[in-house]
Task: inverse folding
């Protein structure tokens, strides 16, 4: 029974210390929250589409010019970038294979569309290299006009 009394008294003595320490921790958390609000970020949301067909471009690269901030578009051509306030002006560098790269400065933070035009000069030549052997009966299935002497 004496052990319980001592334990009870010890808890009563430590409780005010814990309450004060908890209050200090709460104040520190509030200070950290106010410090993080100093560097606010702006969220930019947009869409990248084909200039001619208005089809969304999946996997297009969207990067903030002059920084390492960037992302790729999703299946609907949409992207979202969280950009710090200290970056100004905001200019997006948008690129996609087979399309001409473009720089775009958004007029608003959401709901803007960036249109990329096809670049036929970048896809001038395609080389196909094949190695291996194909048996003639199999080859005749796919190419009916092959030589009969295979």
Result:
């Amino acid at each position: 029974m004496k052990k319980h009394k001592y334990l009870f008294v010890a808890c009563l003595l430590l409780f005010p210390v814990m309450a004060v320490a908890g209050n200090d921790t709460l104040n520190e958390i509030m200070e950290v929250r106010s410090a993080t609000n100093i560097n606010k970020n702006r969220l930019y949301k947009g869409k990248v589409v084909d200039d001619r067909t208005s089809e969304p471009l999946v996997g297009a690269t969207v990067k903030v010019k002059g920084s390492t901030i960037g992302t790729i578009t999703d299946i609907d051509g949409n992207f979202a970038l969280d950009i710090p306030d200290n970056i100004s002006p905001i200019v997006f560098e948008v690129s996609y294979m087979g399309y001409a790269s473009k720089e775009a400065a958004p007029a608003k933070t959401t709901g803007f569309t960036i249109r990329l035009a096809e670049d036929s000069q970048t896809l001038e030549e395609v080389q196909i290299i094949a190695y291996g052997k194909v048996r003639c009966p199999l080859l005749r299935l796919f190419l009916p006009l092959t030589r009969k002497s295979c």
Observations:
- Residues 2-36 form the longest helix (35 residues).
- The helical segments are 2-36, 136-142.
- The first strand starts at residue 41 and ends at 50.
- The chain has two domains: 1-38, 41-120.
